[in-house]
Write a structure and sequence with these properties.
Elements lengths: L1 E5 L6 H12 L5 E4 L10 H10 L3 E2 L3 H6 L10 H13 L2 H9 L4 E3 L2 E4 L13 H11 L8 E4 L5 E7 L4 E4 L4 E2 L4 E7 L12 E7 L4 E7 L4 H10 L6 H10 L5
Parallel strand pairs: 1-2, 2-3, 5-6, 6-10
Antiparallel strand pairs: 1-11, 4-5, 7-8, 7-10, 9-12, 11-12
Amino acid sequence: MRFAIISDIHANVDALRAVLADITRTDVDQILCLGDLVGYNGFPRETIAMLRDARVRAIYGNHDLMALARLPDTGCSTLARKAIQWTRRVLTEDDWWYLASLPADLRIDDLVCVHSAPGDPLVRLGHAEQFRSEAEALTEGGARVSVVFTGHSHRQQVVVVRRDGEVQWTGGADVELPRDALCFVNPGTVGESRDADPRAAYAIFDAESRGVSFRRVPYDRTRLLRRNRELGLLAPSKLQRMAARVLGYSRS
């Protein structure tokens, strides 16, 4: 089977629309979403509706849990907290129940989908020891797991944990996953880019060849920026952040 793997849409329906249109031009059997459907941006209801219409199989992320008030928003930035509080007010009952119905993970044969790590949608996997520890836990008792799709960091990458414990990183380059290792694949973020490339990101995975293809899709950000400006959800500019530091205060 061939899977399109998307993650971290963050209520950016225009980025999602561009990604779904790009996916339709490829030969995939299923679209899997690794969570964080909402948060940060101003189109949560439209994003949920589009995912449902496209029959995307999704799990929840930490921002989805915060929108449901199942996870405190005290640990996130002021801007993220403001977006979550606004999102709670605008979600319909049907939207709420949809988010509430999302599972923590998906398992398809030897593939596992999580938002960050199994049982923990908040942890940021970044160190070799973390990946090594997660790999050991996932295969404990002889469990058959070969690929873990994980989001949360908004960074396209593959991390390979070999049987001898060696950990190898590949950042955003198409690759064929080894069959004698456990591999963590992050498709990047659809709707909330945090690098120099503002395009929407996702990945294609071929279960037969074990090939991973990373994609970037351009989209028009005009409507999103206008909407976020109206709602007060725009991050301060670099110049504003510099001024804040000079004046002795900053955003949390």
